[in-house]
Write a structure and sequence with these properties.
It is a single chain. The chain has 18 helices and 33 strands. A hairpin with an 8-residue loop joins strand 21 and strand 22 (about 330-340). The strands form 7 sheets. Strands 1, 4, 5, 6, 7, 9, 10, 11 and 12 form a 9-stranded mixed beta sheet that branches. About 30% of the residues lie in helices and about 30% in strands. It is an alpha/beta fold and about 650 residues long. The protein folds into 3 domains: about 5-225, CAP (Pathogenesis-related Protein p14a), CATH 3.40.33.10; about 235-340, Immunoglobulin-like (Sandwich), CATH 2.60.40.1080; about 340-565, no CATH class. Helix 6 packs parallel to helix 16 and helix 7 (about 375-385) runs parallel beside helix 11 (about 480-495).
Length: about 650
């Protein structure tokens, strides 16, 4: 191993009367000051050979007792490269040959520049000598670093060059006759001295200035002794999960304290201590669960560490720090009886929901468009009356997911909702091919508008399909989907038909006739009077039918009011609930048959502060169902729901 020797430079000096010695921290309040580190040279140029040759990742290798801390820096390589002409001009003046630029030395200098923002010294933060940075980047067998100059504080190449030129030791490195190549780096950070500079010299020949200058913000892993970390913390709140749901582990935070000395203007050594907090990446730690049958860990594509629920129970999650047990962390994972049905697309989610609701054969399947919510809103009641799943498909063709589910269900009858402008003839032909030879494809259930289609579902459901509708009917606004989503499971379970009206409009005469002749004694209006007018309510009452209005100031408030009313009927299970995103309709619509089939209310959520989560608290829910992937209902929202459960 090559031994580094420092040239004792008593004049390696300072601007603003500050001299930084090796081992000094640089994160202090030293704005406007500059400093030079003692120059170092290597007397022998025998390269160490343990590099891997990749040379791409600017990351210090771990050594015993050190840990990687990610730090964000901004490189200023255009400025660093401009110093080459200054150095070679100096060498020319004393009869020395010009130094060649070397991109490997530049990469080494860039790593070292990031390191000295944390620990201003030739000794690296991991305790190793500077030339070992070549090994970390895979250059150890290619080039050896024979000398290094470091500086801090000056914001430009000329100023830093002047500092080095006026310091005998640094000057000697720049004119050293045995040196043939150089790489330099400049980096800015919003702490300490701001700008930091490094020159790395070698007796090996350079490979040229290749590629454009790097002036980007980058994250660099710096190895610090674990003794620098004084405390570890993490959000120790119990992590609530459902079966099949997952949540990302919170990031631990570590308190870093770097201690050192600097010399004041009188030459007296002064102690300096710099502290800051840093979030440590979970992937660097070793995580484990106390019982993998309850919760299991896995790595996400985003680099995070996730905890997934497997079975109901409680276990611990422990993170082992890579170098010392002193900084280990533990939190609890509690898995509740929560299930998630979600996929990459709305049709994947639909397929998962249908599979959960109907695992075997279904004599009838109701098919409608997944791209056109009005038809699907009114179709849920029909599907429930026929004890059938609601399968959605794309408007252009039969989706692969719909085909797969229908094939698995092996129906004898397929009921299609929507005209050929919604479900084209080509899709009808495909659907017919999925039926047995004596199977029935029911089409023609549609109108010229969404409002007429909802009426036709009611009328043809009775006349063609023999449905005995409930004595309760539902009226909702057809100009939006949000209000009707929450009532759909009730419509499915109780065979209550859904009629759609225009926003702020009166009750169409045709719907009035259907209500008057259909044996209805109650109408539930979903939505405030700004969407379903008071005139509609008055018209219904004039028919001798009682009216219940369920409406809130937002779709989420309305969802809660609907759930409260449903639970008050006594027809639904008070120990369960389903949740879907209120920001879009496909997942909630697809969930109609499952939530309605098991008689649990469906509530809309946006995030962990949604009114529906407040509604769930204190209800002693024993089972919850989520419709949609984590893109629809996030892990944190799922955790908040699970936390409300008994």
């Amino acid at each position: 191993m090559n031994a580094w020797t420092g040239q004792d430079d008593q004049n390696s000096g300072t601007a603003d009367n500050v001299q930084i010695q090796e081992g000094d921290p640089t994160n202090g309040t030293l704005n406007g000051q500059t400093a030079l580190g003692d120059p170092l040279t290597e007397s022998e140029a025998t390269a160490a050979d343990n590099g891997d040759g990749n040379g791409k990742l600017r990351s210090a290798r771990a050594s015993s007792g050190t840990i990687p801390i990610p730090r964000t820096v901004i490189y200023q390589q255009t400025s660093a490269r401009s110093m080459l002409n200054l150095v070679n001009g100096l060498r020319s003046g004393v009869g020395r040959s010009s130094l060649q630029w070397d991109t490997r030395l530049e990469q080494i200098a860039m790593l070292r520049a990031a390191e000295i923002t944390e620990y201003f010294a030739h000794t690296r933060p991991n305790g190793q000598q500077p030339y070992t940075a070549a090994d970390d980047l895979g250059y150890g067998s290619q080039i050896f670093v024979n000398g290094e100059n470091i500086a801090a504080g000056s914001d430009n190449a000329q100023g830093t060059f002047n500092q080095w030129r006026n310091s005998p030791g640094h000057y000697q490195n720049m004119i050293e006759g045995s040196f043939k190549s150089v790489g330099m780096a400049a980096v800015y950070v919003p702490w300490g001295y701001g700008m930091y500079w490094v020159q790395c010299f070698s007796s090996d020949s350079g490979n040229g200035m290749n590629g454009s200058a790097d002036n980007q913000q980058e994250s660099v892993l710096i190895q610090l002794p674990d003794s620098f970390i004084t405390n570890a913390s993490i959000d120790r709140s119990d992590m609530y999960l459902g079966i099949g749901t997952n949540n990302v582990l919170p990031l631990p935070e570590y308190d870093v304290t770097i201690r050192g000395t600097y010399h004041d203007s009188n030459g007296q050594a002064q102690n300096q201590s710099v502290s800051y907090g840093v979030h440590y990446r979970n992937a660097f730690m070793t995580w484990d669960t106390g019982n993998e049958n309850i919760a299991k860990l896995y790595s996400g594509s985003d680099g995070g560490v996730y905890v997934g629920g497997k079975n109901v129970g409680r276990t611990t999650v422990t993170g082992e720090f890579p170098t010392t047990s002193r900084l280990n962390l533990t939190l609890n994972a509690i898995v509740k009886l929560m299930a998630r049905y979600g996929g990459a697309t709305r049709y994947d989610t639909m397929a998962e929901i249908v599979k959960g609701a109907f695992s075997g054969h279904s004599d009838t399947v109701v098919v409608t468009s997944g791209d056109n919510y009005p038809d699907a809103l009114a179709s849920g009641a029909l599907a429930g009356a026929l004890d059938a799943p609601l399968v959605t498909t794309s408007q252009s063709s039969l989706s692969p997911q719909a085909r797969e589910r229908i094939t698995a269900l092996s129906p004898n009858r397929i009921v299609v909702i929507g005209g050929t402008n919604i479900i084209p003839q080509s899709t009808l032909n495909e659907l017919r091919s999925l039926l047995p030879s004596n199977g029935q494809l029911v089409t023609g259930i549609h109108g010229s508008t969404r409002y007429e289609t909802a009426e036709e579902i009611y009328k043809q459901g009775a006349s063609r399909l023999g449905i005995d509708w409930s004595s309760t009917a539902i009226i909702s606004c057809g100009d939006g989907y949000a209000d009707a989503l929450g009532i759909s499971p009730y419509a499915y379970h109780t065979k209550a038909p859904i009629f759609l009206v225009g926003k702020g409009k009166t009750l169409p005469a045709s719907i009035g006739r259907s209500l008057a002749t259909g044996g209805f004694n109650r109408v539930v209006i979903v939505g405030s009077n700004t969407v379903v007018s008071d005139a509609v309510a008055s018209q219904v009452r004039s028919l001798g039918i009682s009216v219940t209005r369920l409406g809130g100031s937002t779709r989420y408030d309305t969802s809660v009011k609907v759930a409260n009313w449903i639970m008050s009927t006594g027809e639904f299970d008070a120990t369960g609930a389903a949740f879907a995103s209120g920001e879009n309709y496909p997942d909630a619509l697809a969930g109609t048959s499952l939530a309605g089939g098991v008689a649990i209310p469906l509530l809309l959520v946006k995030d962990s502060s949604s009114p529906s989560i407040s509604w769930a608290r204190g209800r002693g829910l024993k089972i919850t169902i989520l419709f949609g992937s984590q893109l629809a209902i996030s892990g944190s929202t799922a955790s908040a729901i699970a936390k409300t459960m008994a």
